[in-house]
Design brief:
The chain is 52% helix and 8% strand. The chain is an alpha+beta fold. The protein starts with 8 loop residues before the first helix and ends in a 9-residue tail after the last helix.
Length: 718
Amino acid sequence: MAHVNSHYGRYERTAAFVFFLALSILLFGRGLAGHLTTAYIGREADPPIYMWFMRWWRYALDHRVNPFLTDLLWAPLGFNLAWSAFIPLPAWVAIPIGCWFGEAAAYNILCLVALPLATLSAFLLCRRVTGAFWPSILGGYIFGFSPYMLGQMLGGHLNLILAFPVPLAALTGLRRLDGEISARRFTLEIAALLIVQFLCGIELFATMTVFGGFALLIAIVFFGGETRARLLGLIGSLAAAYAIAMIVVSPYLYYLFALGFPHGPIWSPGNFTADLLNFFIPTETNLLGAFGFARAITGTFGADIYENAAYIGIPLLIVIEAYWRAAWRTSAGSFLITMLAIAIVASLGPALRVGGSAIFPMPWAIVGRLPLISIALPVRFSVYTALLISLIAAIWLSSASVRSSTKNLTAALIVLFFAPNPSTSFWVSRLDPPAFFADRLYEKELSPREIILPLPFPHTGKSMYWQAQSDMYFRMAGGWTRNSPFEFVRMPIVDLFYGQTDLPEAGDQLKAYLARFDVTAIVADPSYERFDTLEPALASLGVAAEQSGGVLIYKIPPGKFAAYAKLTGAEIEARALALRFDTVLAATADYIAGGNDPLKLSAPELKRLNLLPPDWQIATAPNSVSSWSVGVLADKRIGIALWGSPQGVKPLLDRYLDKAELLYPAPSRWNPRSSPSEDQLAPILVIFDRAQVEAAARQLKSSPPPEMTTPFLGADSR
């Protein structure tokens, strides 16, 4: 592989970085002019959360507390932050900026720098391989401003756009293969890059490790002779580099595994996979994806706009085809094309999807079970697709035997098809905290370290920023930390907090939540778009709301809901699951008795026919999440599905053991000896034939189960 002498290095690196930094500021930073501290790059919940992480590290250092463990979130139980994206290294770098200008400014500056850093690292890799400046500039652009980077930037996923160590690791490997650096230096440089990537985001570290391992294996297969011997020689140095890196980050590793860890994907990999059409059609993060025809197609994809990042585009697909034809018979060409195929297959996830519909299974179902890699979403392997394409494009533009005019036109088309959405408002959102937090009015209404329930719930990101802005003045019975403590997520009222209204006895469920987690005040933002869905439950508290600084404060008198604290989490969960199931079962029986088409049975259809409670709002969006579902299976039997823990679903399992087919955790047939972990929510599917549905519904009326005949606290507790 070609490389040039060191004379170009300093000046070209500087020129490339300055150019791409200017491009980043022009594209994403224009909307921050005059609003560096009151607006942020990205959308929705995640950007304020990274501001919280930055403030947390400063708080932890100032107060000399363990940075991995906190009871500020998910109080009073607390949380292990090692399993959140709490970006240690970026947070440390941002401390001076945060002290001077605040965490919002620090977050924005890191975002503006992240893409140029990724671009520069890819440029250096391409420059090493091709020896050509302008093709390498284009290669850097393809990687640093790829749909992956744009999507993660829009989502505010700071841990995923700080990907610059990935190309630098490949560059370091090439330098060692060429004998430019010693084995010792190679080991130390790789160790440093691994440490940096680990402390920026463990998900990229995990995928880089897996993908790098595949790359080394494939390279050993395709290269022979002396090159293969040098590749084999890298294994020992890489093992040493990983050993050094693991020693350095050992405190982090301890908290990752010693206190328990997720045993499966945090997000369902099947919901975040590349769609085959996305390779040709971009989302709105790209200029061409903003047109109506493109939005109509990308709207069918399974993932959200942040994760639909598989786009390559026609010009680059043509370049890949031309490179494949010209270079497949060479070791380097077959290596790059094979690795590109691996990256694409990985991004497709457990099933090939076309227009949102699963066509046939893919290998991810096996690979996704590996430790650490299970936390990665398949579509995020698009970062490696982008890196490989950047190399292929740079090599083809620098070496293909075609006219210069053809290369120039191709480069122009690549830039156009990859161009980001130019709209300022598309990339920037406003930070509008209520005056209650901005003007420190909370100091008059709340006690230090008081446990509050913030509404909206922290999954919107707002209350995380409220807490950070208050210098962690109060604790919250909630949080947005990627995964959540089981004792919280099992509480049925959390469904209502997340926007689902199909919750029986919402008022009692709220009281149980407040009592269980020692909440002494609810701080609610009435401007929250879903506040009306929370008002009935809040009104049931019998506590007058106080207005202060744009929020409503519900102060809970000591002991007001003490009776609810006597209930166990299993009892609270089981009651809500059973009542929800009873309601759906009765509605299904009425649907069948009304002569309706069984094949059309669904939650929206039950709602349309007014067979469900009036306050149950049924989400119909393609990516919407619901706590239950109902429908007809392939064998024309009827299935009702819910999510619950083994203790929560036990009454349903006991009730229908001999009256229906039970799958738990679905799709496995229920077996008491192989139930899920007690601290895990899993789907339960109860399957009836028509006669069984009718019999079960009659049983509900003739011999109602306990949840239908007793009050929430029991017969004598009111």
